[in-house]
Design a protein that fits this description.
The complex is a heterodimer of chains A (about 400) and B (about 90). Chain A contains five helices and 24 strands. Chain A has about 400 residues and is mainly beta. Chain A has two domains: about 190 residues, Sulfite Oxidase, Chain A, domain 2 (Alpha-Beta Complex); about 110 residues, Immunoglobulin-like (Sandwich), CATH 2.60.40. In chain A, helix 1 runs antiparallel to helix 2. In chain B, helix 2 packs across helix 5 and helix 4 runs antiparallel to helix 5. Chain B is built from five helices and no strands. Chain B has one domain: Cytochrome c-like domain (Cytochrome Bc1 Complex, Chain D, domain 2), CATH 1.10.760.10. The interface between A and B is large, with 44 and 39 residues.
Chain lengths: ~400, ~90
C-alpha cells in the first residue's frame, strides 16, 4: 500500500513532482493505482485507469479520454449540489467542437411545428427564466457492477451529479413556432458529432408531453455559472427526472416530429425490457416489444461518507449519503446494521425539490470489529430499492441496496 | 515497490496529456487494432470491457462497430481484430 507520505518522500527528488502530487485530492493517495475504483467493476479497468484532469475540472476518474468519459469519485458527491468542476463528463462521440456563445443559435422547426425559428443565447436569456435543482445521472451509471458484466462504458457509482439548472422553458421555445396537434416527439441534436461520417450522430427525442413539462428547460446556467464546456456549453436540454441520455449538450437543433425519431441512439440503444422496472413514465411512440426507451430514474441511494471496508472508530459514526429518484421525491431512507433484519430511519437533510439529491445521515453506534451498513431509499409513491439486481442487457437502473462493511 | 512508485509518478505527470495512449497487450493482430479502432475512440474501451466477453462476444462487438457505427474495417482485419481481442481480453 502506498501512502501519501511515501509518495511524497519518493518524489522528493524533484520539486515539480512533489507539487503535482500535492495538488491531488487526499483520497487519491489511498490506493496503489491512484484511483479508487468501485469494487465490482471489470478488472481490466485497473490496467489503464488514471485520474484525469480536463480543463476546468478537478481530477475525475478517467475511464476514457476520447470520447471523454470521466466519473466522479464518491467524495465529490457529498453535497446535495455537485460543484461544476466535480461534475462527471460523458460523451458518445469524439468530435466535440468548442462552441462559442457568440454566433451560437438553436434551430427550431420540424414537420410537427407550424414554423421555424432561430434562437440565440441572448434570446434564451431574455425569456422567463426557470430554475430547477435536478440530478443528472447517466443511464449507464453502475453498469460496471452488472453481474454478469455487459458491454459499454463501465461506470461505477459516479456517473451522476446534481446541479441547479437555470434556463428557458422548452415549452416557451416551442410556443414560438407552435406545435401541430400531430406532433408526437421533440428531438434534439447537439454540436458534437462522430469522428467518421458513417457513425450515427447522437440524436435523441422525448415525448411532447415531457417536452411541454414546466420543468423541462434549455439550461444556460449550472449552479449560477455558465455551463462548463464538458457539460454542454452554451446550452443543454434538462429533462428532470429522466436519465442523462435526453439532456442534449451543446444543443443546436430542436425538431418537432409527427413520426417517431429513428436512429441507433433511440433504438436499439438506451432501451430497457418492457415490464421489468416499476416505471410510470412511458414513451409509447418509441415502444416496440420487447423493449422500451429508458425514461425516469429508479429510486436509489449512495453512501458517500465512507467506502466499503473503511476504518472507523468504535464510537458514534455519522454515515451519510444521497438519495434520489425520478422526480416523485424521497420519502424516507432506511438503514440496517444487521444485514436487513431490522431497519431504522436516517435523518433527511435539505429538500431542494423532488428532482434533487436528498441528503441523509445515520448515526451508527460502531462496535469494535466489523460493522455493516445497508441502505434503502423509498420515494413518495412507495417505490424502494431492490435487494437483487434486475439484470438487463445494457446494465441500466441498478438500484441494488448497498451493504458496506466498516471496520472499527 | 520503488519501481511501482516511479511508474505511478510517471502516470501523474502524464495526466494532462490527452494523448497518453493506453498500451494494449502485445500479440498478433494488435497492429490491426491500432490501425482501425483508434480512428473513433481510445483503445481504453478494450481493457475497460474485459475480461468478460468470450470469442463470440468480441466478434459481435467488432461486427457492431462495423454495422452499427460504420467502421470501415475490411473482413480480414475484422477477423484479426476479433481474434486478438478474444485471445488477449476475452474469457
Amino acid at each position: 500500500m502506498i501512502t501519501r507520505r511515501h509518495l511524497l518522500e519518493t518524489a522528493g527528488a524533484g520539486a515539480a513532482l512533489a507539487v503535482s502530487a500535492l495538488s491531488l485530492p487526499k483520497f487519491m493517495a489511498a490506493e496503489a493505482a491512484g484511483v479508487d475504483l468501485t469494487p465490482g467493476v471489470p478488472q481490466g479497468i485497473s490496467s489503464y485507469v488514471t485520474m484525469g484532469t480536463l480543463p476546468g475540472k478537478k481530477p475525475l476518474i478517467q475511464l476514457s479520454d476520447r470520447p471523454p468519459n470521466y466519473e466522479a469519485p464518491i467524495e465529490y458527491l457529498r453535497t446535495p449540489i455537485t460543484p461544476n468542476d466535480q461534475f462527471y463528463v460523458r460523451y458518445h462521440l469524439a468530435d466535440i467542437p468548442e462552441v462559442k456563445a457568440e454566433g451560437y443559435k438553436i434551430s427550431v422547426g420540424g414537420d410537427g411545428a407550424n414554423g421555424t425559428a432561430e434562437i440565440t443565447l441572448d434570446d434564451l436569456k431574455k425569456m422567463p427564466a426557470v430554475e430547477v435543482v435536478a440530478v443528472n445521472q447517466c443511464s449507464g451509471n453502475r453498469r460496471g457492477l452488472s453481474n454478469p458484466h455487459v458491454q459499454g462504458v463501465e461506470w461505477g457509482y459516479g456517473a451522476m451529479g446534481c446541479a441547479r439548472w437555470k434556463g428557458a422553458k422548452l415549452k416557451d421555445v416551442l410556443d414560438k413556432v407552435g406545435l401541430k396537434k400531430e406532433a408526437i416527439e421533440i428531438s434534439f441534436n447537439g454540436a458534437d458529432g462522430p469522428a467518421i461520417d458513417k457513425t450515427p450522430d447522437f440524436i435523441k427525442s422525448i415525448p411532447v408531453w415531457k417536452a411541454m413539462d414546466e420543468s423541462t428547460i434549455i439550461a444556460y446556467e449550472m449552479n449560477g455559472a455558465p455551463l462548463p464546456h464538458f457539460n454542454g456549453f452554451p446550452a443543454r436540454i434538462v429533462v428532470p427526472g429522466w436519465t442523462g441520455t435526453y439532456w442534449m449538450k451543446h444543443v443546436i437543433s430542436i425538431t418537432a416530429l409527427t413520426k417517431p425519431q429513428g436512429g441507433f441512439w433511440m433504438n436499439p440503444a438506451y432501451r430497457v425490457p418492457i415490464g421489468k422496472f416499476p416505471l410510470r413514465d412511458r414513451f409509447t411512440t418509441q415502444e416496440y416489444a420487447p423493449n422500451t426507451p429508458i425514461t425516469e430514474m429508479v429510486v436509489n441511494s449512495l453512501i458517500t461518507s465512507h467506502r466499503d471496508g473503511a476504518k472507523i472508530k468504535a464510537s458514534t459514526v455519522a454515515v451519510s449519503g444521497m438519495a434520489w429518484d425520478g422526480g416523485y421525491g424521497i420519502r424516507s431512507v432506511q438503514v440496517s446494521t444487521d444485514g436487513g433484519k431490522t431497519w431504522a430511519s436516517a435523518a433527511l437533510g435539505q429538500d431542494l425539490g423532488p428532482y434533487a439529491f436528498r441528503p441523509w445521515s445515520f448515526d451508527l453506534s460502531a462496535k469494535k470489529g466489523t460493522n455493516t451498513v445497508m441502505v434503502n431509499a423509498t420515494n413518495k409513491i412507495g417505490q424502494s430499492q431492490t435487494a437483487e439486481l434486475i439484470f438487463n442487457p445494457a446494465g441500466y437502473h441498478n438500484n441494488v441496496m448497498q451493504n458496506i462493511t466498516l471496520i472499527a | 515497490m520503488r519501481t511501482f512508485v516511479i511508474a505511478f509518478i510517471a502516470a501523474l505527470i502524464a495526466l494532462p496529456a490527452a494523448a497518453a495512449d493506453v498500451q494494449l497487450k502485445k500479440g498478433p493482430g494488435l497492429d490491426k487494432v491500432e490501425a482501425n479502432c483508434q480512428a473513433c475512440h481510445t483503445l481504453a474501451y478494450i481493457p475497460m470491457n474485459s475480461p468478460f466477453l468470450n470469442a463470440a462476444g468480441w466478434s459481435a462487438m467488432v461486427t457492431k462497430m462495423i454495422k452499427a457505427f460504420g467502421a470501415p474495417i475490411d473482413d480480414g482485419d475484422a477477423k484479426a481484430i476479433a481474434e486478438y481481442l478474444a485471445k488477449n481480453y476475452g474469457t
